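Hey all, sorry for the wall of text incoming. These are the two entities for the joint prediction.
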Amino acid sequence: MKKFVYLMLSAAACMAVMPTVAADAVPYKVADGNKVDAQTLSGWKTWRALACERCHGAAQEGMVGPSLVNSLKVLTKDQFKETVLHGRIEKGMPNFDGSKMVVENIDNLYAYLKGRSDGAIQPGRLTEIGK
Amino acid sequence: MSFQTSLIRWWPCLALAVSPAFAADSDTAQLSKDPKNWAMQSGDLSNQRYSELKQINSKNARNLQVAWTFSTGVLRGHEGGPLVIGDTMYLHSPFPNKVFAISLEDQGIKWKYEPKQDPTVIPVMCCDTVNRGLAYANGKIFLQQADTTLVALDAKTGAELWKTKVGDPKIGETTTNAPHIFKDKLLTGISGGEFGVRGRIAAYDPNTGKLLWKAFSTGPDKDMLIDPAKTMTWTDGKMAPVGPDSSLKSWQGDQWKLGGGTTWGWYSYDPQLNLMYYGTGNPSTWNPRQRPGDNKWSMTIFARDLDTGVAKWVYQMTPHDEWDYDGVNEMILADINVKGKPRKALVHFDRNGFGYTMDRQSGELLVAEKYDPVVNWASHIDMKSGRPVVVAKYSTDKNGPDVNSKGICPSALGTKDQQPASYSPKTGLFYVPTNHVCMDYEPFQIEYTAGQPYVGSTLSMYPAPNSHGGMGNFIAWDASSGKIVWSKPEKFSVWSGALSTAGDVVFYGTLEGYIKAVDNKGKELWKFKTPSGIIGNVMTWEYKGKQYIGVLSGIGGWAGIGLAAGLTKGTEGLGAVGGYKDLAKYTELGGVLTVFALPDR
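and here's what came out:
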């Protein structure tokens, strides 16, 4: 009985929280900090393949380029896409619209970096949830 | 077939026919013989970075003080150093690659040159826009801009005399190297090993900018100016011809076209042998599984005939690189006794942690020993085959993609990067700025896209474990026996070019921003904190009876990047805190030349 009540309460809590989550449309799923959904995993692989850490740091903390932990708190998704695909050439940010991998994974890359910025995803290697 | 390809096919004949007829020696070598000048980036043709000046000596160096300073007005990493010819200093900056002619009389700016460059070059130089300095010959200053434009300026007025493009930034080709003047030729290289470019070196006519010869690091023999029957390499304990298709056979398919082997280091020249020497960089990508084979001739010391460009001998230090141990570091020419026998030697401190002594005439391998005891990726160099004996657990190829190979020493920064060492003929020793950094290396599969990074590995770097905790050493090296004579620990990598002098004082800079003077035994005599971290090279000259010491400060370059790559272990070893933040306690960006002299009596 006690257990049942607890479950009921938990469910109620979830129900209460769910709408806000949906409105914010968290673009990633994460477990244990380093297991993510397939899309977010592709985002991380894109980040890694394009060597983004050379400017933005291995933990997105910023180096020659700005901290993406901070930037993703400020940029809208559209601004993010614009910046990555078309670059900020004078500041040293290349345009990645020539990269098939980036173009195909721009939403996934956003999901990964948003997760890093939110502190939900840990820096470093990731694996897929359930694999 | 385009006009260009047919020209490339036939140019060796053109070069042979044309260049001797117009050969007019430059005055550069002659000017560099006068120790009052610093007419070449390394002081001389041999890359010795040694000066006969001795007004500043081991007794009075502690009295050195600032004579004057000059701001370049540019942030980011300042590598290389100024030239001094007579009463004028010529100084460069990182991108946008400004050039200043400064009067030594009153430090006034005689002229200033600032090229207009396409800013799209900045991203493909990621992550720093360094430039290693100017060259001088016959009243001309030569600048190799970031966007691969090679330009000649009138040394008196700064007026452009000619310019030519040596590469294409759209496919990731950039230039950071100093151009080099040897005899009647202007030599330049290419950068972009992390963008899958195909490395080469090229000789131009300093008077006109006309291409005289060009030699690739990879591909068909004719592209590399390799003569299969006459180009020699160390084989089974002796020199033997490389044979046909030595590069093509060492790659799978067309991977050699993206093969790297870039050429951004410090070249040298022996006028008696008429041979020029340089090293080639890493093969692309950093994921070794994607490029089976020895990947020739990346990671190689080349000796080429200066007139024709044809390779006399080659030696590959790191066949099938698995760690990014570029072979571009300087080739120092010195006539020394090696194991009791006088030799025309070439001494090279490779990124891979081994100090090599070669016979520079024949190309024979004489000595190959670790110049940092922590080097662990190879147990030793097998002197018969000339190949490193790789330790299996540090083989990132054997461990494979998506496996993190841990505790590899040195890191990809190498036991030394481009920061050039010095040789003192007076002591017979080499003074070497080194890194003391190890790494974890995790390769992964990657696709090539022109103009996009082509790296394929995640790295984490940290100070060499179980050592003094610092990330650098300044050492003295005996190239005859291959032994460290003394080693002075440093908190950070020593990323500054060294200078030795007849005054028994050796100079170098540190990442915190100190310029230091030590005696021949490594005892610190003096230090001074310059405005920013030093990755420039210390040099010296004399003007109106007074000896000066100059050094560029301005933190940046891969030293900064490397430090930023994470020095304390966070999650998965990628947490980037510690070292770089530590460096930030000492210094900030900003390019300044600081000049020192002894006080007037």
